[in-house]
Amino acid sequence: MATNLPKEEVERLFREYEDYDFARTGTNATEKVELNEGPLEQFTHEMEPFLRKQGLPVRLNKGVVELISDFVVCEEGKPLSPESARILRLLGIKMATFKLHLICRWSSDDFELYKEGLDDASDVESA
Questions:
Q1: 104 near 94, Cβ under 8 Å?
Q2: Which PANTHER family does the record associate with it (predicted)?
Q3: What is the Cα–Cα distance from 51 to 91, expressed in whole angstroms?
Q4: Per residue of the chain (127 residues), what is the pLDDT tens digit?
Q5: Which of 12, 69, 97, 125 has the smallest number of Cβ neighbours within 10 A?
């Protein structure tokens, strides 16, 4: 990021910025998500085979996707399976938080390193 903002303002922007996103496989669920038996009107009849492949107990009833029994998509604190992550995305439920991490700062006067020793175990991703 190139800017002429003061150092304190840039640090504040990085510290305060966060955006919600869909959780990926392996992420710990932040809440329990359970679907109740009955019609799933947010899905078209064309989605029924895909939903069944994701493990949902569904059937078509007069062209409407119907959940045959209650279904727990995920449990709070437990890692998401690939199927659970896909179902949450289809439901529009975002469980991940995207944050920016300021790693270093360079100006014509100096260089400052904020994060040292980034390794594979870090939650900071670099591209």
A1: no
A2: MRNA TURNOVER PROTEIN 4 HOMOLOG, MRNA TURNOVER PROTEIN 4 MRTO4
A3: 11
A4: 788 888 889 889 988 999 999 999 999 999 999 999 999 999 999 999 999 999 999 999 999 999 999 999 999 999 999 999 999 999 999 999 888 888 888 888 888 888 765 554 445 554 4
A5: 125
